[in-house]
Specification:
Strand content of chain A: 15-25%
Helix content of chain A: 10-25%
Shape of chain A: globular
Order of helices and strands of chain B: HEHHHHHHHHHEEEEHHEEEE
Number of strands of chain B: 9
Order of helices and strands of chain A: EEHEHEE
Shape of chain B: globular
Oligomer: heterodimer
Structural class of chain A: alpha+beta
Number of strands of chain A: 5
Largest sheet of chain B: 3 strands, antiparallel
Helix content of chain B: 40-55%
Largest interface: A-B, 12 and 15 residues
């Protein structure tokens, strides 16, 4: 199963095996990773599964859709060019080994 | 609004938590947001009760609920029309989407009606159940009173522990497989949301009400594409009520047994006698 790394703002790193097709948010919540709140459960309605994507890998992700773009305006942590909602990023073989940094707050 | 309401209830001291808080608050704030007329809003309670009974079997509960709603049907349809909705409210915004071609004219009143059917009885019971939880777990209430910032997660935990929506049906739109089980197209499936909320594989000590646990990930609002569209508003209502209570009230004392209102889908209370002690 491909894995991804979640990096806490303090630098602590969690590695997760994520089944292909599962969202990064779902994998993080199932594993109880602190810092991914995911209040709305993956409906792209709350902006509390915000992550920063490893810069070099940005183009490997599916493009931001309008609903996600609007919700990213509402993140508690600063929105940056590499901000994504992890509920909108589904695992693929191509994303194996990717790192996501969590914001200071959700 | 929450402060004025709770201050008034504190003066009374003894209250029915369901009628005077659980119903009073959502019946004010949500129809206001939709832009509904002030008059006759209590009709939404009977309407919501019928809709959530209709998700279940065609039993006596549904028959009785449908009888109560029959004389109210005209009121509901009339008040879902654009000319009866406040400009700028959620309801009016739905009609604006007709103008831009996103919705059809027949869809708009039905969507407004969906807001009204889904957005009241659920929150009424969400708040009622949260009050029940906090009244019956004084140790948890003490934590909330000491730290009102816990209001949002306390509401979340009560949604997990006493799910206002217990079950929901889905229909398979095509042949598929779910957790290894083959599901044929057009099959009705009943999901037990409240059961998932106490699944020991997901939750430590699932039968313990603990407002400090991380309760997000519960299934009370459903999940994914068809997740509850009003959940953001519901959480806001719950948080505002609980944070205001936490600041204004020292203790919520249960006065005798609460009574249930049976519904095919909802976990509902008919009455919840309480005494509020001012902080």
């Amino acid at each position: 199963m491909p894995e991804v790394h979640l990096i806490q703002p303090g630098g602590q790193r969690v590695t997760l095996d994520v089944p292909v097709g599962t969202s990064i948010m779902q994998a993080a919540v199932s594993a109880g990773v602190a810092g991914i709140v995911a209040e709305c459960g993956g409906s792209c309605m709350c902006a509390t599964c915000h992550v920063y994507v490893e810069e070099a890998a940005l183009t490997r992700l599916p493009p931001v859709q309008p609903a996600e773009h609007d919700m990213l305006e509402c993140t508690a942590g600063e929105r940056r060019f590499n901000s994504r909602l992890s509920c909108q990023v589904r695992m693929t073989e191509d994303l194996a080994g990717l790192s996501f940094t969590l914001p200071e707050s959700q | 609004m929450a402060e004025a309401l709770i201050d008034r209830l504190l003066e009374k001291g003894t209250i029915d938590g369901v009628k005077e808080l659980g119903e009073a608050y959502p019946l004010k704030v949500f129809p206001d947001a939709v832009g509904l007329t002030e008059e006759g809003r209590e009709n939404l309670l009977a309407y919501g009760d019928m809709v959530f009974n209709a998700f279940g079997p065609r039993n006596q509960l549904l028959i009785n609920a449908a009888k109560r709603v029959e004389p109210l049907t005209d009121w509901i349809m009339t008040n879902c029309q654009r000319q009866n909705l406040r400009p700028g409210g959620f309801g009016d915004q739905i009609y604006q989407a007709v103008e831009t071609g996103e919705l059809t004219e027949t869809e708009a009143p039905m969507l407004v009606r969906s807001f009204l059917s889904a957005g009241v009885d659920t929150t009424v019971n969400g708040i009622g159940n949260a009050l029940w939880c906090l009244a019956n777990h004084p140790d948890q209430w003490d934590k909330l009173h000491a730290n009102p910032a816990l209001a949002r997660q306390a509401f979340e935990e009560s949604l997990r522990f006493e799910a206002a929506v217990q079950t929901f049906f889905r229909t398979a739109s095509r042949d598929c497989e779910l957790a290894g089980a083959p599901i044929r197209s057009d099959t009705k499936m009943l999901t037990f949301l409240a059961s998932a909320n106490r699944d020991p594989r997901q939750w430590q000590n699932p039968d313990v009400f603990d407002i400090e646990r991380r309760a997000t990930g519960h299934m009370t609002f459903g999940s994914g594409l068809h997740g509850c569209v009003g959940q953001v508003v519901a959480r806001l209502e719950g948080e505002l009520i609980l944070s205001t209570l936490a600041r204004r009230v020292r203790r919520i004392e249960p006065l005798g047994p609460s009574t249930r209102r049976l519904n095919n889908t909802l976990r509902a209370l008919a009455s919840l006698p309480l005494r509020l002690h001012a902080a």
